[in-house]
Amino acid sequence: MLKKKKMCQHSNTLLHFLRHVSFPPDAHLLPSALKSCHAQPLARALHAAAAVSGLAEDPFVASSLLHTYIRLGATSAARVVFERMPDKSVVGWSALIAGYSARGDAEVAWGLLERMRSAGVEPNVITWNGLVSGLNRSGSALDAVKALVRMHGEGFLPDATGVSCALSAVGDVKEVSVGEQLHGYVVKAGCRLDQHVVTALIDMYGKCGRADEISHVFYESSHMDVASCNALVAGLSRNAQVSEALLLFSEFVSRGVELNVVSWTSIVACCVQNGKDLEAVDLFRKMQSKGIEPNSVTIPCVLPAFANVAALMHGRSAHCFSLRKGFLHDVYVGSALVDMYAKCGKVRYARTIFDAIPSKNTVSWNAIIGGYAMHGEAANAVQLFCLMQKCKQKPDLVTFTCVISACGQAGLTEEGRHYFNEMQHSHGISPRMEHYACMVTLLGRAGKLDEAYDLINEMPFEPDGCIWGSLLGSCRVYGNVFLAEVAAEKLFELEPENTGNYVLLSNIYASKKMWDGVNRVRDQMKNMGLKKEKGCSWIEIKNKVHMLSAGDSSHPMMTAITEKLKQLTIEMSRLGFAPSTDFVLHDVEEQEKDDILAVHSEKLAVALGLISTSPGTPLRVIKNLRICGDCHEAMKFISCFEGREISVRDTNRFHHFKDGKCSCGDYW
DNA sequence: ATAGGGTTAG
Questions:
Q1: Which nucleotide has its C1' atom closest to residue A125's CA?
Q2: Which of helix, strand or coil describes residue A547?
Q3: A166 CA, B2 C1': Å apart
Q4: Which of A50, A171, A206, A388 could in theory staple to A55 by disulfide, Cβ–Cβ 3.0 to 4.6 A?
């Protein structure tokens, strides 16, 4: 911002100079004036001044004008200057070719190259580099690679600059074989000592999915600068090598390499993209303690981490920070805030943020519609969906996933079916796996299990684990052993390591008192060496996120937590609020019945919340698995007995408990 | 007095 202001002041000085200086600008003065010119109108003014003084044809002035117009993106004006140049040198041709390449006009650029040759001027390495670089930067990576291949075919050996931008283009189109050839050339030509080349190689291999080569290139070169760090972290993140990225990042830090906001943003994003939310939160704090201020990219990168662990206080402070910095107008920041507030249980705040985003995009709309879906507010989701279309914003694949799942959460079976059809017939979007999964959930919830099974059989592609998992879940609710066995058989094949499926099937057998089945599934699990998935919950108390997991007694307050739970259990049975054993929905954790202390993590989290906050404070808990019926009943009791609003976000949706009732209407 | 390069994002 400041820089721009300075430039404007500078331009004003130049204009002032042009208007008031009594002697005419000369051929020596104009090129330096043009060099410092940063706006098209000023360039045109200088051009006019040159023309009036008869200097426009001077080779230096003309060349400066040409380069200035190219630099400012005024390609046509540059062309006019160029065509009038009496002696068209390789410099002029190169500039013009670079200009058209940077606009993505590959055809024009190639045409100029031909014209140049017929005029008897041969392109040099700089001409070629300009062509490759321009095409790459304009997003025509494929054209850039083509240009590079042709350059090589014509006997021009790319230098470090050429190789760098060619590698960047290769990464964008994932032409790893071309990349490898370039790598070979780099080794032969000896330019692998060039830092930019090393960085570009790391970037290219990262984008082409070759994590092994990233480390290889990095360890072979001994360069440790900001750029190589950024490329490394991004490359490793893309390839899910999060531990490697964290290790190398800390190495850069301890070596005293001066890392910038991009480096810190990259490592935060790396953690978020690879499921390390708490590490991301930690690194975000560390970044600030090192004096690096987050920018408008950092904020949307870190917000999903806050959202995932429901760190509302952190999210709120990111919101305030964005407000102070003027980031709220940024659609990325806005959409990420909408998502964060919705996932932290504050769907009203999410709406407020959403309404204030000046130019909303599909992601913004999806965030708010998905937010309403998560909270079971189907009417609002549908209303926003209609508004979206009124605002001429095209719904995409994600939008329909949100709308159909909203209908499913609220039991609007026919509406859901309607949107599923409309998606195909009115919007020309063919349903993908996730849409079928939503439909199976929707039909399953309504008890239309046979219809759900028919839909699965009609799918034009092989159903995945989510689809069968959804059917199995509905079978648990409606006690359909036959379809449960069909779904489970597929699931054991598709995702043999997913313990939740075994537990679910075992629970279905148990609910029907089919003990043979129960034992068979348990043996199967034991034989495969599978352990029950550990449930864990998070609760934010006074700006700190606490993680509690079932069977883990490492939390410092564990004695008090257990005491509180014991007391609640006593009160519960005293008041006749005994959980029905028949209503153990979605118990994917399966506690050992005889182990009284093995309590589901959400209960531990709520107990911690109860003893650490003042009476009446709402509690928000998030859980990595679905909430079980037992805990669901307990939460209803606690909300009533303790007079607290409790919200539990499980993998599926939000449950808002208040006065002994849940917003899901006991269906989930 | 006139030409060229790498890294981050829902």
A1: B4
A2: strand
A3: 26
A4: A50
Calculate the CA dihedral of residues A320, A326, A330, A334 and round it to 10 degrees: 20
Q: How far apart are CA A165 and CA A134, in angstroms?
A: 9
Which tens digits make up the pLDDT trace of A584-611? 434 445 444 434 445 889 999 999 999 9
Question: Any idea which nucleotide's C1' is nearest the CA of A296?
Answer: B9
Predicted model pTM? 0.86
Asked whether residue A459, judged by its CB, lies under 7 Å from any atom of the DNA or RNA strand B, the reply is: no
* Cα angle value A123/A126/A128 (rounded, 5°): 60
Q: Rounded to an integer, what distance in angstroms lies between the CA atom of residue A314 and that of residue A320?
A: 10
Which residues in 225-284 of chain A line strand B, with CB less than 7 A from it?
A: 225-228, 230-231, 234, 237, 261-263, 265-266, 269, 272-273
- A422-445 exposure pattern, b = at least 16 Cβ within 10 A, e = fewer: ebeeebebebeebbbbbbbbbbbb
pLDDT at A85 over 70: yes
A332 touches strand B (CB under 7 A): yes
Nucleotide nearest to A266 (CA to C1'): B8
Q: Please tell me the distance from the alpha carbon of residue A625 to that of residue A330, in angstroms, as a whole number.
A: 34
Q: What is the pLDDT of residue A613?
A: 95
Give the model confidence (pLDDT) of A316-359 as tens digits. 999 999 999 999 999 999 999 999 999 999 999 999 999 999 99
Question: A75, A91 in Cβ contact below 8 A?
Answer: no
- Please state, in angstroms and rounded to a whole number, the distance separating the CA atoms of residues A436 and A452: 9
Residue nearest to nucleotide B9 (CA to C1'): A297
Give me the pLDDT at residue A410, please.
86
The mean pLDDT value for A13-41 works out to: 76
The domains of chain A, with CATH numbers, are 453-527 (1.25.40), 539-662 (no CATH)
pLDDT at A625: 84
Using CA atoms, how far apart are residues A309 and A271, in angstroms rounded to an integer?
13
For the segment 15-74 of chain A, residues whose CB is within 7 A of strand B:
27-28, 31-32, 35, 58-61, 63-64, 67, 71
